[in-house]
Design brief:
mainly alpha; two-stranded parallel sheet
């Protein structure tokens, strides 16, 4: 709660392919935050808190498209 990992997020997105899936209700703020702090992260917007459960087929399609074959 008191840690700031913004620099690590940027370094991580520079070094490792990163996918960030954000909830629709946070899309505007979260997209801006991710673009600023993990600029090389791929971003997808989907559903709400449990998007992997609520939209399992779409979520799996997003992950499968992101992961190289």
């Amino acid at each position: 709660m008191f840690s700031d990992y913004r620099e690590e997020a940027k370094l991580g997105s520079d070094a490792v392919p990163t996918l960030t899936v954000i909830a629709e209700h946070w899309a505007d703020k979260a997209r801006s935050f991710v673009e600023q702090h993990a600029p090389k992260s791929a971003i997808e917007v989907l559903g709400g808190h449990l998007m992997f459960w609520e939209h399992d087929e779409k979520f799996n399609q997003i992950v499968e498209k992101f992961i190289p074959a």
